[in-house]
Amino acid sequence: MTPSTVGSPQLPILLLIHLQAERISETALGDIRGGIDHIHTGRIALEELGIGFIPFSPLGKGFLTGKIDERTTFDSSDFRNIVPRFTPENRKANLALVDLLAGIAGRKRATPAQIALAWLLAQKPWIVPIPGTTKQHRLEENIGAAAIELTSDDLREIENAASQVTVHGARYPEQLEQLTGR
User: Fold this and answer.
1) Is residue 88 within a helix (H) or strand (E), and if so which, with residue range?
2) pLDDT of residue 93
């Protein structure tokens, strides 16, 4: 945006174009602070114009499911093999966040993945996470997140705990991270 566009009636559209990179960025609980910043940054324009937000990789490339730990091995063709956040030592360090989800999941009779998705769903009605899966039972599990009601205390607990967790490892290898514009 330039100073000449500030008074333009097209300003909300220009703002949305500027926010396009943020709209497609990862918004998983593992990136909670960045995710909340992205949501709040574009919230007013998105709400005013009735535009939804579809978080990319809302389960943190599967990490927030609680099915991955430092001992997990991936197929040699799996992209996560080159992702710094998925080194064994970083997975071990990042389990604190999964443990938080698992604790709440136990109380809600849910899975960590369902709690992560329910957290996103609780943010705003126009936020619609669409996790990818190739398995029918995971699809059913993910759909179950819509039935989970997180109280304001649950949300506060998640956000407070997540703000205390330092996520270890970059989201992508450096050369790929540069392509994201972050």
Assistant:
1) helix 88-108
2) 93
